[in-house]
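Allow me, if you will, to draw on your knowledge of protein folds for a short while. Thank you for your consideration; the sequence and its tokens are set out here:
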Amino acid sequence: MKNGLNGSGSQKYKCNECGAVYTPEPKENGYSADMRLLAIRMYVEGSSYRSIARVLKINPQSVVNWVNRYTSKLPPAPLPNKVRKAELDELYTFVGEKKTKSTF
């Protein structure tokens, strides 16, 4: 006899004789591998977690989890070569307003 639905929406049945609960044709949980790969590619191309989630109509935390799981499997990035020369230029920044006022 029918015994409700499981978490993924598949019909559950209960055996009248032994009382065991089973699902003859369970649905796959989660998102497809293609969806996960697309989200990771979008992230690599520069999209934010939220924009990926909005476009694919999924939870942003799922995108974060997929990217973190993928990046944890990557080899460490190579160390950059040592810099022998560096050229600096001056940059002035004012926070708030300038102390002296110009009159023109």
Summary: The chain has a mean pLDDT of 85. Residues 1-29 form one domain. Strands lie at 2-5, 11-14, 21-22. The radius of gyration is 28 Å.
